Amino acid sequence: MINVLLVDDEDLIRVGLRAIIDAEEDLAVVAETGDGASVPPLIAKHRPDVVLMDVRMPAVDGITATKHVVRNVPEPPKIIVITTFGNDDYVYDALRAGASGFLLKRTPPDEIVSAIRLVARGESLLFPEAIRGLAAAHGSRGRAGLEQAGLTEREREVLRLMTAGLSNTEIAEKLVLGVQTVKTHVGNVLGKLHARDRTQAVIMAYESGFVTPS
């Protein structure tokens, strides 16, 4: 069972998401709130696997809540931010803060439940074109780290394919490698970059200039 915490200040959105999630046999909403400030205690109490986090809330917003969870909660749950607009500045900042991906509030129900299962497995919810667009809009932030990380040429090649949104299986096919070998390379990339997941590694790749939005 994958336990989910809903965080959105709109009652109607929470009701809709709860109905979608609770209709699935392997998913369950364990708690919900309309304020980012109540997220840490709810996580401590219910230990959700995934948090659906609205980025725009009047009190404590989703970015602040995400930062707190990632930095201060032991073994933090995966966070998917939900937003009305994909080019929202809040989305990019939430991804930089540690969210594993984002969904639009108009996303079809089947895609929402698929996304929850995906991040619960430890994968990232990457939309290459959206990430590229957000990175282009925000420009390089001069983030260092990739050159000093000591990535091998193969690991750099794997990271470039990660920025294109390729899965481990697709990377394996592209490079004519075994899937387990690719998993090892991805793990090495994340470890050397001190990245929480693929999303963080991809953002670091853009912000350091390793790859460009063009």
Question: Which descriptors apply to this entry?
Answer:
11 helices, 13% strand, globular, alpha/beta, 52% helix, 214 residues, 2 domains, Sig_transdc_resp-reg_receiver, five-stranded parallel sheet, Rossmann fold, Arc Repressor Mutant, subunit A, phosphoprotein
Protein model, in words:
- The protein folds into two domains: 2-125, Rossmann fold (3-Layer(aba) Sandwich); 140-207, Arc Repressor Mutant, subunit A (Orthogonal Bundle), CATH 1.10.10.10.
- It is built from eleven helices and five strands; from the N terminus they run βαβαβαβαβααααααα.
- The protein has helices at 11-22, 39-46, 62-72, 89-97, 109-120, 128-138, 146-149, 153-163, 168-175, 179-193, 198-207, and strands spanning 2-7, 27-33, 50-54, 78-83, 101-104.
- The termini are far apart.
- The mean pLDDT is 87.
Strand order of the largest sheet: 2-1-3-4-5
| Share of helix, binned | 40-55%
What spatial form do the alpha-carbon principal axes imply? globular
State the order of secondary-structure elements, H for helix, E for strand. EHEHEHEHEHHHHHHH
By DSSP, the count of extended strands is: 5
By CATH, the topology of the largest domain is: Rossmann fold
Query: At the first level of CATH, what is the class of the largest domain?
Result: Alpha Beta
Figure out the total of helices: 11
Structural class: alpha/beta
Low-confidence stretches: none
Gap from first CA to last CA? 41 Å
Rg (C-alpha, Å): 17 Å
Mean pLDDT: 87
Characterize the biggest β-sheet: 5 strands, parallel
